[in-house]
Design brief:
Oligomer: single chain
Number of domains: 2
Largest sheet: none
Distance between the termini: 50 Å
Number of strands: 0
């Protein structure tokens, strides 16, 4: 699969037609068509514009998806994590041992 095919795949995934996608990126519909056919390559300004709408630019350019976090954490978990990170090494070790003991039960 080439850049144009991946670009089209991303446009379809996000639910845009060529005309709307071209408008988002600030190019003519014919330019969008040419990008998707592989006759031209989009420039950095185009890629930045479509990235704002959710296009995985890394995927479009390289064929590899951008890594995504597997799990998002809530505000309470983030606060706990920040508190643990603020501890010294010895105290972090103690917290780790305590959590390990709780998880075994």
């Amino acid at each position: 699969m080439n850049i144009g095919e991946r670009l089209r795949e991303e446009r379809v995934r996000l639910g845009y037609n060529q005309a709307d996608f071209a408008a988002i990126a600030g190019v003519a519909k014919t330019s969008q068509f040419n990008y998707e056919k592989g006759e031209r390559s989009p420039d950095a300004a185009y890629l930045a514009a479509v990235a704002e709408k959710g296009v995985d630019v890394l995927y479009v350019v390289t064929g590899q998806r951008a890594p995504t976090p597997e799990v998002s954490i809530g505000a309470d978990e983030m606060e706990t994590l920040q508190q643990i990170r603020a501890l010294g090494a010895e105290d972090r070790g103690a917290v780790g041992r305590l959590l390990a003991a709780f998880s075994r039960k």
